[in-house]
Design brief:
Length: 122
């Protein structure tokens, strides 16, 4: 039986909350990820009524899900005003890769994301 793989995505940008919401909407637009994208928020700080979105979790199915994820990140990062955004992809064992508009076009990014997400815990 195949173990489900989850990708945890966080952002580093000048406007992280709207950018995270935009990325969540963009990922939800992919049929591969329909119903598989959730927003995770941190605990509210003292005096706050709500929480702030901090990361996205994408449940990846089998097959070419990593390829679809990388292609989707590539297209989202190519939008205007995304050149300074960095996306961190975190695997289940804490391994991570950081991608941005400068390195997302490299062919090895897909292999690195796949390695981070499918790496066995030591």
């Amino acid at each position: 039986m195949e173990v489900p793989v989850e990708a945890r995505l966080s952002l580093e940008s000048a406007d992280p909350i709207p950018d995270l919401e935009s990325l969540a909407d963009w990922l939800r637009g992919e049929s591969e990820f329909h119903g598989r994208v959730t927003v995770h928020s941190g605990a509210p700080e003292d005096g706050q009524l709500g929480t702030v979105p901090q990361a996205l979790v994408v449940a990846l199915g089998s097959g070419g899900a990593v390829s679809v994820l990388v292609a989707t990140l590539r297209s989202w990062l190519s939008l205007p005003r995304r050149s300074s955004v960095k996306i961190k992809v975190l695997g289940k064992d804490g391994a991570k890769i950081e991608v941005d508009a400068k390195n997302i076009r490299e062919k090895r990014v897909e292999a690195l994301v796949d390695e981070v997400l499918n790496r066995e815990s030591e």
